[in-house]
Recover the amino acids of this structure.
């Protein structure tokens, strides 16, 4: 017997969950397929920011925006593309999609303020930001299904699975100096202790895990049929239309599933598709990715190519980058730590190349940091700090306020030395160069000045810094031994390369004609930002918006 649904969605990250929930809310019979055992994809381990310009929630919070400003900013940050209609659809329909999600699903969003755009000096940039995030989510609302929600990276949690919000971090840093901060910290710890009595990890979910939790609850509430561990191996393409999928069942036996109206691809993109990824990134980048690997033998893009779809062209501007460090967990699993916002912009850290020289303003966005690595051949690079920095802010996997870092030193992840010259030897850079680099940096840093790169010179950089540190929240000297370093290399947070679609998220063929019955959203869809990264959440914003667009269009097809 062949199963039949109205709409089949492949992939249970933010885009797939959104498409499935919206289609089900439109009274469609929906099947959601996920190759892994967990729901949430990369969203569940992310910061969970959703960049949507001209949204009503920011306006209600007093942050003015306009279509003219948003378009001006994107015009100055996003390279031109063959079809401007897709980006324009995102701008024009973004707020409507957010309203639709909150009206028809359990998802609840709030503004993140302030969180400046990444290029605050450009025309149209927003000082307060255009970012939304999910409200904290109580994992207990999922009941027994909570175990199927992908957990956050353990390196981003405390005390055995306690998630903290960005706003909690200043309180944690000041807990020993401020009664108010100590009280705030005590409340967090008490709540977590109560939660751990009944769950294997904290159930107060924040950031991307909260976003995934709300969307997971939505598909459950709306009656979506969910199959995890389901390996989609083929699209059924007959009579000029995609009419379903083939899923490998238990023992590898294939099962045909009919999609009466559409198949929506939202399987995470080509980050882990070795063949397709190699077409779209410089060789120097390698294969490191901070995106969740589905483990599927074929990406959604590869499946679509078999039925005539087209993929982004060229090798330039096709990654959405972050510097990342790699490590081995105590259980033997390999970890990738994305150095997005937790350490690089804080005062008392520099990045150096193999010559022991700085090559970038460390407080720039993670995407710009990697672009500088590629431009200057700074692969690998090393983040260098002193003991004071390590204690206060941590460094990569090494969490702040750690009484012992011996495990990280013995594993080779954290390089430690009593002098800068010894640290240079530990990371394999010229000692004299590193000593001169640190001395030059310290000379200005003692006055809060970065003469070489003007670090801390705009509101975005200062936002990443430590507001309690003055006069420059991004600059402090490196002078208290022992000294530390971590190696970082380029990694993608998701690929900009993806399936070419129209403004309705329909996948296009080589003649730019829609392939009937086939849609793509999330990272399976070519990024509307065309390889640019103008603000926090420029993957999740379009993922939600085009998840809504794809589902509504398919339901009415």
């Amino acid at each position: 017997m062949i199963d039949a649904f109205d709409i089949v969605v492949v992939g249970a990250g933010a885009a797939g969950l959104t498409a499935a929930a919206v289609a089900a809310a439109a009274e469609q019979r929906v099947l959601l397929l996920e190759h892994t055992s967990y729901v949430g994809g990369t969203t569940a381990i992310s910061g969970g920011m959703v960049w949507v310009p001209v949204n009503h929630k920011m306006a209600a919070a007093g942050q003015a925006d306009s279509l003219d400003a948003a378009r001006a900013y994107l015009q100055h940050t996003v390279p031109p593309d063959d079809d401007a209609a897709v980006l324009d659809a995102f701008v024009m329909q973004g707020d409507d999609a957010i309203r639709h999600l909150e009206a028809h699903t359990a998802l609840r969003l709030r503004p993140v303020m302030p969180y400046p755009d990444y290029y605050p000096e450009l025309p149209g940039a927003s000082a307060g930001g255009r970012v939304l995030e999910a409200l904290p989510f109580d994992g207990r609302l999922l009941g027994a299904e909570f175990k199927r929600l992908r957990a956050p990276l353990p390196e981003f949690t405390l005390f055995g699975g306690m998630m903290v919000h960005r706003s909690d971090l200043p309180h944690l840093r000041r807990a020993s100096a401020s009664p108010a901060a100590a009280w705030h910290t005590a409340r967090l710890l008490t709540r977590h202790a109560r939660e751990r009595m009944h769950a294997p990890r904290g159930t107060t979910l924040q950031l991307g895990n909260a976003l995934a939790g709300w969307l997971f609850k939505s598909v459950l509430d709306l009656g979506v049929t969910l199959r995890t561990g389901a390996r989609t191996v083929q699209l059924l393409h007959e009579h000029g239309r995609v009419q379903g999928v083939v899923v490998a069942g238990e023992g590898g036996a294939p099962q045909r599933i009919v999609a009466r109206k559409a198949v929506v691809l939202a399987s995470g993109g080509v980050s882990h598709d070795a063949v397709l990824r190699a077409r779209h990134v410089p060789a120097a980048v390698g294969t490191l990715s901070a995106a969740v690997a589905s483990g599927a033998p074929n990406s959604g893009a590869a499946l679509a190519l078999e039925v005539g779809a087209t993929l982004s062209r060229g090798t330039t501007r096709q990654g959405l980058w972050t510097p990342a460090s790699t490590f081995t967990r105590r259980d033997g699993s390999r970890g990738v730590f994305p150095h997005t916002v937790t350490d690089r912009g804080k005062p008392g850290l520099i990045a150096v190349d193999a010559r022991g020289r700085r090559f970038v303003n460390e407080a720039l966005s993670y995407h710009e940091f990697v672009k500088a690595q590629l431009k200057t051949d700074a692969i690998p690079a090393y983040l260098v700090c002193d003991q004071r920095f390590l204690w206060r802010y941590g460094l990569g996997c090494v969490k702040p306020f750690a009484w012992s870092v011996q495990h990280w030193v013995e594993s080779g992840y954290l390089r430690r030395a009593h002098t800068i010259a010894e640290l240079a030897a530990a990371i394999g850079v010229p000692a004299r160069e590193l000593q001169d680099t640190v001395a030059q940096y310290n000379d200005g840093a003692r006055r809060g000045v970065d003469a070489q790169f003007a670090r801390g010179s705009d509101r975005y950089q200062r936002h990443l810094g430590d507001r309690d540190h003055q006069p420059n929240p991004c600059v402090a000297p490196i002078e208290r031994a022992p000294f530390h370093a971590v190696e970082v290399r380029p990694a993608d947070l998701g690929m900009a390369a993806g399936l070419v679609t129209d403004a309705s998220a329909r996948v296009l063929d080589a003649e730019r004609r829609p392939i009937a019955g086939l849609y793509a959203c999330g990272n399976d869809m070519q990024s509307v930002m065309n390889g640019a990264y103008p603000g926090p959440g420029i993957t999740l914003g379009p993922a939600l918006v085009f998840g809504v667009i794809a589902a509504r269009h398919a339901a009415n097809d």
